[in-house]
Amino acid sequence: MPDVNWLAVLAAAISAFLLGGLWYSPALFGKAWQRGAGLTDEQLKGGNPAKIYGGSFVLSLVAAATFAMFLGKLPVGTATAYGFCAGLTWVAASFGINYLFERRPASLWLVNGGYHTLQFTLYGLILGLWH
User: Fold this and answer.
1) How far is Cα 46 from Cα 6, in angstroms, rounded to an integer?
2) Among 53, 83, 123, 128, which residue is least crowded by beta carbons within 10 Å?
3) Could you tell me which residues come within 8 angstroms of residue 83 by beta carbon, excluding any fewer than 6 positions away?
4) Count of CA atoms in the C-beta half-sphere (13 A) of 32
């Protein structure tokens, strides 16, 4: 098993959580995401916040830890570039395939794909800085 800096993994997961809070806020892309996802204000108020936010954080930890294992110890510039590429060409492109078959709007793909591209770019940056 590769040597993983678990504090860096935790910081990366936290960065994704904070980015998501900003990215999906009304100040940035929250309303565009809501329209694209077809969710009403009432639907957004429902659900189990502990499950939604707790589950999202655990999944961010899993993604950051796995990406740290994938990266190993790389210079910060290379790790950041790999993060950008992983977010854009693995995650966002895979979402794009699903969205095409699901007939989802391109605007939703741009919001979600953009988030995950920046999420993995941040992962690379943070993991590269702390290697």
Assistant:
1) 34
2) 53
3) 67, 120, 121, 122, 123, 124, 125, 127
4) 15
Alpha helices in the chain (DSSP H): 6-23, 30-37, 41-45, 49-71, 76-85, 93-102, 106-129
Q: Over 80: is that where the pLDDT of 1 sits?
A: no
Whether the CB-CB separation of 122 and 15 falls below 8 Å is answered with yes
Report the chain's mean pLDDT, rounded to a whole number.
96
Give the count of beta carbons closer than 10 Å to the beta carbon of residue 17: 15
Distance, CA of 127 to CA of 9 (rounded, Å):
7
The pLDDT tens digits for 26-48 are 999 999 999 999 999 999 998 89
Q: Are 124 and 91 in contact (CB under 8 A)?
A: no
For the entire predicted model, the pTM comes to 0.94
User: Are 121 and 15 within 8 A, CB to CB?
Assistant: no
- How far apart are alpha carbons 14 and 20 in whole angstroms? 10
